[in-house]
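Hmm, what's this shape?
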Amino acid sequence: MFATQEQLSAAKADFEAQLAAAAALTSKTLQSVAQLVGLNVSTAKASFEQSAATAQQLLAAKDAQEFFALSAAQTQPNAEKALAYGRSLADIASATHAEFTEAAKAQLAETTRKANELVDGIAKYAPVGSESAIALLKSAINNANAGYEQLNKNAKQAAETLEETMSKITKQFSQAAEKAAGRAKK
């Protein structure tokens, strides 16, 4: 069977669409990596500067009590910085996940549309008595879509649960850091 010009044009358009989607996802991945690297560099720089300043303060302490008070006073700011870093990291991951999920949905919708068109085309030229095979193909496509939707729903629930857990951990960590800072002041 020879491909018609129309089939070749459709195949070329599909290939170009796939290439564009891959390029967009690659670009988003690189943007996310750049954000992550930027976050890590700025965090490392700030941490180094803070460590140097803290070391100077600790070296200037007049006695052990002042040394330990200065050391304990760093607990709250360090905890807040760690929490801010975690939130920034979660924001980058969440934004990337959302864009990848959206791209996957669009790709699935297009693939489903094309699969349905293919099945409809096959159905037009299928011999009499092949209705059950056509119905089976359509059922398989619908089941695959339902499976993807369930997987997407489960992933969304997992992300929400993770976010809630991180929020609880952050709250508990903040409370513990505040208590430790309060004890250090006494």
Remarks:
- The chain is about 90% helix and 0% strand.
